[in-house]
Amino acid sequence: MLEEGAFDIVKPEVAFGLHVWSTLNAGLVGYRSGSFMAASDRFRILVKGRQTHGSRPWGGVDPIVVSSQIVMGLQTIVSRQIDITRYPAVVSVGAIKGGIRNNIIPDEVEMIGTFRTFDPAVRKQIIERITRTAEDIAHAGGATATVEIADDNNPVVVNEARLTERMLTSLEHVAGAGRVVEMPYVTGAEDFAFFGLRVPSLFFFVGSTPAGVDAAQAPSNHSPQFFLDESSLDLGLRAMLGVTVDYLQGTRR
Length: 253
Hints:
The protein is an alpha+beta fold. The chain has six helices and twelve strands. A four-stranded mixed beta sheet has the order 1-12-2-11, covered by helices on one side. It has a four-stranded antiparallel beta sheet with strand order 6-8-4-9, covered by helices on one side.
């Protein structure tokens, strides 16, 4: 929509969005002012060693061992190098690919993964530390490591503070007193964030797990066991209509 100029044709004043969310029970609406959902990035690390027979590891450079050391080294970025008292962060390796036989040490290993951040400065620090960790560990083992950060970064979902405060009463009017709850940071990502880069925005969650079921233990949205209490569809519709109409009419309930 943005690439095709939707906001250039008629630029909106604000943007509202919602998402059903399994860690909330049906009937609840969740929000967070400011940074809400994480920025997401993809990375690729290519570790190059020197092939040799598995019976003679000293005859080459084992990129599998080096890669395993890099994976463990990456775990110290969040736990020891980032000030998580300000913003949380996540660094995860999702796949390691290398080797074709049980008795051959390969030339190279590829690792791919993701990291999640809530602040541009923290994102910059993590990119620097992933690169330094991979390159230095590889060098210590006689190998090389090349780090690539994908260029399709998804930014942080940021709920504009004044808009969020203004529309809370609208959400409470729809959901009921005590049914609109403040949420912790969410390390999932959402491309609604791109709207928020252009106009003040508010993104909120509508609970989808049936009342009486422990939402903290409910299967996540992307699980094949995800279950939607269809009453959340009704609440979501009324919540979106509520914030939209109240904003357009300048209503403060």
